[in-house]
Design brief:
Length: 450
Amino acid sequence: MAEAIQPTNLFSSKKRTNPDDSNRDEDNFVAKKPATKPSWEDPASALANARHEFGEHGGVNMSIEASATFTVMEPETLSRMFAGELGPDRDFFIYSRHFNPTVLNLGRQMAALEGTEAAYCTASGMSAISSVLLQLVSSGDHVVASQTLYGGTHALLTHFLPRSSNITTSFVDIRDLEQTKAAIVEGRTKVLYFESMSNPTLTVANIPELCRIAHDKGVTVVVDNTFAPMVVSPARLGADVVVHSISKYISGGADIIAGAVCGPASFVNSLMDLHQGALMLLGPTMNAKVAFELSERIPHLGLRVKEHCHRALVYAQRMKKMGLKVIYPGLEDHPDHHLLKSISNKEYGYGGMLCLDMETEARANKLMNLLQNQTQFGLMAVSLGYYETLMSCSGSSTSSEMNQDEKALAGISPGLVRMSIGYSGTLEQRWGQFEKALSRLQDSSLFSKN
């Protein structure tokens, strides 16, 4: 398990002009602190305790380091940097595809959020996922993964990695712990991969038990926590590496594409190794200006997540009372409700996503059309975590990479409408818009199954 490390210095320091002005012999690029006993800490508290980076001239916000390359004071310093003797932990930078000060600070915030020793950010969620897998798994190795995953991740594991890298994957129902255990091939399986809350069916992973099974067999656990930032902290439950598409809730504005890798400092450093690091050599570099934008949004992530989750719960409860087939882990009849309650961080809720199963794609499309174009409840669009409600029919959009059999195994019906519940407008205003659209749908011939 990646241990939660408390920073010893909350504020930034000036760059050292002399590489020998410290007696530290740390040879890692991301500074490692002395190991401490793992302890639970509320994500919002952890963020508040993280080092605050001031601007170059004392500004309350950090400066943007937009440089692609960095100078040194003595020529010998360059060779020491390339040899790994000097690095960003001592404020020495080579090139922004390697480490960038602004992106590194965002990484510190992500590490605090997830309770990991270190983190670094990438150009997209998929680049974070693919880089992690390529760092951990080699040709001929094997992955065990949940059968319910984001369509892009499923395609990466099903099609791209077998073709490009001779890496194979066995997909399992992660609720079935015995099946998961049996799928691990000793000596070949390197990674157990799953989502904390699955896209789109909202299956909740039993992270502590899955980690125990994997670790007993020497397998690394990688968890995608895109659907549940603040709500669930996988690293604190035993996960080795946590990945994010921070384009979603963490950004909150549907205007940025970005990803993150959170885990032990040794692993983050390996991703940036000059000879074998997947992030360094494949180059999914985050722009420093994007990192600055994201760093300004993380402090109010907890407030946003609480409102997303609150509205999702209220809507799910009301939809259920109306007799709709609603999937939401905050409902007591959801099969994973008690599990989520036992592993989640208190006071953040049960997630901001819910699904309505309209059974057929035609009914799903009709409902979404009414909700967007007649009552203005939300927008027909993929992605999630936006302040407006976003809706999509998963089977024909974000899970379209899966074939019919794979969708059936994953529990994705043709009429499954995934909703990312927003917080704009008042709750009652938006609920009234939903009721109006549903009433019009019920009046139409499409609502009848016959």
